């Protein structure tokens, strides 16, 4: 028996069959990709920019007077010890100058007033000198809107210095602001000048081997699903 020639399938029928066969698969893949993206944004790790902050202590006088004396080594970027006498001020009693001491150990980063200058006359509480602590004591980051999760103390974070080291450091969120605040300019996208509000996040317990400069920018990855109980200070014994 001779084999009968095959009847070609019309193109519209072929397209309809392909549509029936593959459309559910394509739709499933698209939905899976969208779900993965949403999960990553809302439940997965989120990376922000964070800025290293340090303590700035102000040297001032408890009474008005005239700056009369400063140590020879007192100049910008000089290091001072906590309690070191940095200047003396002549106040109401010229026979007993007031010694002005550094409140913390650190580096002199600004001298507002200096003996012998035209601005040597100071008022009580007026800044005379700014001393910056030796190393940053915390990081601050801002979660931009829309807020895809609620950051909480105890959430795991990974700190990545941007250039000088490829090493990463683990820490946890210590504080979260109860309100939004303007994001600092250094943490905004390049070229953005408009004010933008974000939720401030603070990391205070920095790893001991994390070496940063004040004002240095780092990458901060937050893991919303990895939360540990915040550590609390021990309760002193009652005598």
Q: What labels describe this entry?
A:
239 residues, mainly beta, OB fold (Dihydrolipoamide Acetyltransferase, E2P), Elongation Factor Tu (Ef-tu), domain 3, 2 domains, 8-stranded antiparallel sheet, 4-stranded antiparallel sheet, 1 helix, 16 strands, disordered C terminus
Write the SSE topology:
Blueprint: H1 11-42, E1 46-53, E2 56-59, E3 65-70, E4 79-80, E5 85-90, E6 98-101, E7 106-111, E8 121-122, E9 129-132, E10 138-144, E11 155-161, E12 169-172, E13 175-176, E14 181-182, E15 197-203, E16 217-227
Antiparallel strand pairs: 1-10, 1-16, 2-9, 3-5, 3-8, 4-7, 5-6, 7-9, 10-15, 11-12, 11-16, 13-15, 14-15
* Helical residue percent band: 10-25%
Number of DSSP helical runs: 1
Work out the count of structural domains: 2
Instruction: Quote the CATH topology of the largest domain.
Output: Elongation Factor Tu (Ef-tu), domain 3
What structural class should be given to the helix and strand makeup?
mainly beta
Q: In this structure, how is the largest beta sheet organized? A: 8 strands, antiparallel
* Sequence of secondary-structure elements: HEEEEEEEEEEEEEEEE
Could you give the distance between the termini? 111 Å
Query: Which CATH architecture of the largest domain is right?
Result: Beta Barrel
Look at the structure and give the mean pLDDT.
Answer: 84
Mind telling me the C-alpha Rg?
Answer: 31 Å
Beta strands, count? 16
């Amino acid at each position: 028996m001779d084999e009968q020639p095959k009847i070609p399938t019309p193109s519209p029928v072929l397209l309809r069959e392909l549509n029936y066969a593959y459309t559910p698969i394509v739709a499933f893949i698209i939905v899976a990709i969208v779900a993965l993206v949403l999960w990553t944004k809302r439940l997965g790790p989120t990376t922000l920019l964070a800025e290293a902050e340090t303590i700035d202590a102000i040297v001032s006088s408890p009474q008005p007077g005239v700056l009369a004396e400063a140590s020879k080594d007192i100049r910008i970027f000089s290091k001072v010890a906590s309690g070191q006498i940095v200047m003396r001020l002549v106040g109401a009693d010229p026979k007993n100058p007031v010694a002005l001491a550094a409140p913390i150990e650190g580096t002199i980063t600004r001298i507002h007033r200096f003996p012998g200058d035209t601005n040597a006359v100071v008022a009580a509480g007026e800044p005379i000198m700014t001393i910056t602590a030796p190393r940053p004591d915390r990081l601050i980051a801002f979660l931009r809107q829309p807020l895809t999760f609620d950051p909480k103390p105890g959430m795991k974070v990974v700190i990545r210095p941007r250039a000088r080291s490829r090493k990463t450091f683990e820490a946890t969120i210590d504080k979260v602001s109860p309100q939004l605040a303007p994001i600092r300019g250094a943490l905004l996208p390049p070229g953005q000048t408009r004010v933008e509000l974000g939720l401030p996040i603070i990391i205070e317990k920095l790893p001991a081997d994390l070496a940063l400069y004040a004002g240095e920018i780092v990458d901060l990855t937050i893991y919303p699903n990895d939360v540990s109980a915040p550590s609390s200070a021990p309760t002193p014994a009652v005598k």
